[in-house]
Recover the amino acids of this structure.
C-alpha cells in the first residue's frame, strides 16, 4: 500500500465561553429604552413577554381553569395599597421582608432572605434606582440573574396576582413594600411561570443570585469541622441554607413536634459561640421564609436557657420572642434534625477556614442529543453507549500553593501535593420545560484519570480509564463535586440516565492554579492508513468479478456510471447478510469521480481493482462494528466503525453526516456506508492538499463543516 500523511484539524473556539459581569437584556428587552418609551408616551408598561394571565401563573395546579386561581386579579401596587403610596424599598432590604405566599418556592425565598445580608450582592440582583413615586414611574422594573455563564437583565411590569386585594404569593410584613414580590415575578418570568418555581434547592437560587459555586453537605455524615466550615463560609459572605429531607410526598411541609417543617428550606443567617457554665455552646441562627413557625427546642425564642445570659448579649444576638420566623438553635440539635446543608461560595473561596483564592474558571455549553451524544449511564455491556457522551480533557498543571508549602514543611513524610478541583454540571431550562411535561433529569458526571497517550481516542477500551471517585449524580439542576487530585490528565464525562434523554447542559471547571481544558470532540483527524492507496494483490481481482466487469465494459474496457451501477448491484445480491437499497446512479457517479485515475467519468479495470480492495476493507469494518447484527448500523456503531477506519470526527460532524447518509431512524445500511467512506476519503484528500499548500494544520469550524458536509466528490 502507498501511504499518505495523516492529517489532524484542531477546531478553534467559536467564542469565549466564560461568563462576563456585564448583563445582557433578557428576551432583548432593554429596560432603559422601554422605560423611556413609556414615559414619552405617558403610559404604564405592560410586558408582552409575561402577560398578566393564567398562563403566567402556571400550567396545572395554577394553570387555566384551575380552582386555585379563581378570583385572581392582577393589580399594580398603587391599586393594592389601601393607605398611602407603595414603596419599592422601605427602610432598607432585610431578611424579614420575605414572607412566603401560596407557592412552594421556599427554596427561592430562603435564598433571597440570605442575600439581604450582603448588600453588594443584593444590589447586583436588585438595582436600587427604582421607585413608584415621581415623574420617573412607568410601571416597569428590572432585576439581574446569573444564567448558565451570563448575567441577564429581566424586565417586568408591576402587575401582581391578588385575591381579595391580597398578594397571592410572596409579600412583605410592610404591606406597602414591593421589591420582593417583583423579584419573585422576575424569577417566575425567567422560568416560564410562577408554578414552575414549585420545589427546588436553595443552591439553585444561590447560584442564580451570584454566579457562584454550589456545594451540598450531608449532615448525617460525621464532620468534626462543620462549625468551622459554617463560620468560615459566613465570614466569607457565602450564602447558606438547610432542609429536612422527606421520604413520602405527604410529609412535605409537615411540622415536626419541635416546630420545624419537613421538606422546607431554611436560610442560615448567623453563628455564635457562647460560654454556658463550664461548657461552650455553639449556636446557629436560622430563618423560616414563612415569617412564622419556629423551632421550639433548646435555645428557641422562649427557651429558659437565655435567662441566665447577659441582656447585652441577648440584644447583640437579636433574641426576641417574636413570631418572625427567625430563631437560634444549638449545633448538635441542628445536625440531629436537619439533613442537608447547602453552601454557595460566590467569591471563589475554599470551604476550609481562613483560606482564600481566586478560581481559574472554564465554562462550556453543551448538549445531549439522542443518537449522537446522549449515551446514557455506563452499563459495562457490549452495547454500552456511555462513551458516546461528551468528553472533556482537563490537565491539572501544578498543585495548590498551600499544598506545596505543606510538603516543604513536612518534607518527604508528606505525600505528593494536590490540586483543588471542582466540577459543576447544570442542566439548562428544565423548569421552563415543565409546561410540556418535562422536568429535571437524573444527570451525572464521572471523572477518570488517564494517560496522555489515551486522551484523543474516544473508542479505547474503558479499562484504560481509572475513575478517581464514585459518579456524582442527582435530579437537581446543579450537581457539584469538590476534589483534591494530584497534577495530571483527567477525563470528565457528563451524562443522563438514559441514552434517549435529550437536554442542554453547562459544565464549569474551577481550579486554584491554571489548568488546560478542552472538549475532546474539538479535533477532526484522519490516519495515514485511511488515506493510503491500496495495492491490489498479485493475483488481481476475483475471477468472477473481473469477468463481470469485462462483461459490462465497452470496447475501451472502461465502465460508465450506468454500467458500474449494474456491476455493484449484481455484486450486492450475493451479500444477503447486509441491508442495502442498492447503489443509485448518483452514488456511482461520485465513486467513479473519486477512483477514476484520469478523471474521465469512467473506471478502468485498474481503477475498479482499487475500489474493490477498498470496498472489501469497508465490508470487514462494517461487519465487525454491526454489533447487533442487524445488517445496518446505528450512530454509535457508525462512530466506532469510522474510528476503526481511521476517520476521527467530532459529534457535530458525525450528526450532519448521518443525517445526510442515514434513514429517518438514523440507521445506515451498507451501500450508504460505502458512499460515506468515499465521501470522507475525498474530503480529507482535499483538506490535506489545502493545508499542504497553506503550510499549517489549523482550521476553523465553519471551513471544516462546509467541506465534510457539503463538498461534492
Amino acid at each position: 500500500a502507498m501511504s499518505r500523511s495523516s492529517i489532524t484539524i484542531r477546531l478553534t473556539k467559536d467564542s469565549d465561553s466564560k461568563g462576563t459581569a456585564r448583563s445582557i437584556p433578557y428576551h432583548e428587552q432593554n429596560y432603559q429604552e422601554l422605560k423611556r418609551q413609556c414615559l414619552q408616551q405617558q403610559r404604564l408598561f405592560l410586558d408582552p413577554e409575561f402577560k398578566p394571565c393564567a398562563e403566567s401563573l402556571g400550567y396545572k395546579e395554577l394553570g387555566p381553569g384551575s380552582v386555585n386561581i379563581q378570583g385572581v386579579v392582577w393589580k399594580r401596587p398603587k391599586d393594592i395599597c389601601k393607605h398611602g403610596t407603595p414603596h419599592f424599598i422601605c427602610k432598607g432590604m432585610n431578611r424579614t421582608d420575605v414572607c412566603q405566599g401560596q407557592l412552594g418556592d421556599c427554596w427561592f425565598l430562603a435564598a433571597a432572605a440570605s442575600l439581604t445580608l450582603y448588600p453588594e450582592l443584593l444590589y447586583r440582583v436588585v438595582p436600587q434606582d427604582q421607585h413608584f413615586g415621581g415623574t420617573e414611574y412607568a410601571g416597569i422594573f428590572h432585576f439581574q440573574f446569573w444564567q448558565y455563564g451570563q448575567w441577564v437583565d429581566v424586565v417586568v411590569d408591576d402587575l401582581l396576582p391578588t385575591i381579595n386585594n391580597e398578594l397571592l404569593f410572596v409579600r412583605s410584613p410592610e404591606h406597602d413594600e414591593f421589591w420582593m414580590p417583583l423579584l419573585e415575578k422576575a424569577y417566575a418570568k425567567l422560568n416560564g411561570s410562577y408554578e414552575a418555581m414549585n420545589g427546588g434547592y436553595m443552591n439553585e437560587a444561590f447560584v442564580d443570585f451570584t454566579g457562584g459555586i454550589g456545594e451540598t453537605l450531608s449532615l448525617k455524615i460525621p464532620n468534626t469541622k462543620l462549625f468551622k466550615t459554617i463560620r468560615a463560609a459566613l465570614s466569607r459572605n457565602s450564602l447558606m441554607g438547610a432542609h429536612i429531607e422527606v421520604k413520602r410526598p405527604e410529609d412535605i411541609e409537615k411540622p415536626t413536634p419541635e416546630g420545624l417543617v419537613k421538606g422546607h428550606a431554611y436560610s442560615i443567617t448567623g453563628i455564635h459561640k457562647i460560654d454556658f457554665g463550664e461548657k461552650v455552646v455553639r449556636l446557629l441562627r436560622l430563618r423560616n421564609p414563612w415569617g412564622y413557625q419556629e423551632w421550639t427546642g433548646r435555645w428557641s425564642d422562649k427557651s429558659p436557657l437565655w435567662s441566665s445570659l447577659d441582656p447585652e448579649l441577648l440584644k447583640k444576638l437579636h433574641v426576641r420572642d417574636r413570631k418572625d420566623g427567625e430563631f437560634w438553635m444549638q449545633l448538635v440539635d441542628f445536625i440531629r434534625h436537619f439533613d442537608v446543608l447547602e453552601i454557595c461560595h460566590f467569591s471563589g473561596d475554599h470551604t476550609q477556614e481562613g483560606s482564600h483564592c481566586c478560581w481559574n474558571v472554564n465554562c462550556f455549553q453543551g448538549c445531549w442529543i439522542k443518537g449522537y451524544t446522549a449515551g446514557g449511564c455506563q452499563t459495562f455491556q457490549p452495547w454500552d453507549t456511555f462513551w458516546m457522551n461528551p468528553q472533556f480533557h482537563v490537565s491539572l498543571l501544578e498543585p495548590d500553593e498551600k499544598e506545596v508549602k505543606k510538603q516543604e514543611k513536612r518534607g518527604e513524610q508528606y505525600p505528593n501535593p494536590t490540586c483543588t478541583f471542582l466540577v459543576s454540571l447544570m442542566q439548562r431550562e428544565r423548569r421552563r420545560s415543565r409546561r410540556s411535561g418535562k422536568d429535571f433529569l437524573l444527570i451525572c458526571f464521572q471523572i477518570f484519570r488517564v494517560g496522555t497517550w489515551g486522551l484523543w481516542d474516544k473508542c479505547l477500551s474503558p479499562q484504560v480509564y481509572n475513575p478517581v471517585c464514585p459518579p456524582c449524580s442527582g435530579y437537581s439542576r446543579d450537581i457539584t463535586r469538590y476534589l483534591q487530585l494530584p497534577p495530571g490528565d483527567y477525563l470528565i464525562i457528563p451524562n443522563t440516565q438514559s441514552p434517549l434523554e435529550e437536554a442542554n447542559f453547562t459544565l464549569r471547571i474551577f481550579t486554584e492554579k491554571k489548568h488546560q481544558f478542552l472538549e475532546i470532540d474539538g479535533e477532526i483527524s484522519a490516519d495515514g492508513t485511511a488515506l493510503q492507496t491500496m495495492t491490489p494483490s498479485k493475483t488481481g481481482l476475483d475471477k468472477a468479478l473481473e469477468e463481470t466487469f469485462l462483461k459490462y465494459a465497452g470496447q475501451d474496457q472502461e465502465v460508465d456510471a450506468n454500467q458500474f451501477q449494474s456491476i455493484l448491484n449484481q455484486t450486492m445480491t450475493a451479500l444477503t447478510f447486509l441491508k442495502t437499497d442498492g447503489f443509485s446512479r448518483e452514488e456511482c457517479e461520485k465513486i467513479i469521480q473519486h477512483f477514476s485515475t484520469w478523471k474521465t467519468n469512467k473506471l478502468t479495470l485498474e481503477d475498479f481493482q482499487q475500489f474493490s480492495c477498498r470496498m472489501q476493507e469497508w465490508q470487514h469494518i462494517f461487519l465487525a462494528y454491526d454489533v447487533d447484527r442487524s445488517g445496518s448500523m446505528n450512530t454509535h456503531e457508525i462512530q466506532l466503525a469510522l474510528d476503526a477506519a481511521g476517520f476521527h470526527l467530532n459529534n457535530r460532524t458525525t450528526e450532519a453526516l448521518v443525517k445526510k447518509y442515514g434513514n429517518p431512524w438514523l440507521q445506515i445500511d451498507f451501500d450508504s456506508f460505502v458512499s460515506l467512506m468515499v465521501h470522507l476519503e475525498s474530503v480529507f484528500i482535499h483538506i490535506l492538499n489545502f493545508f499542504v499548500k497553506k503550510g499549517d494544520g489549523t482550521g476553523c469550524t465553519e471551513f471544516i463543516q462546509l467541506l465534510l458536509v457539503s463538498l461534492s466528490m
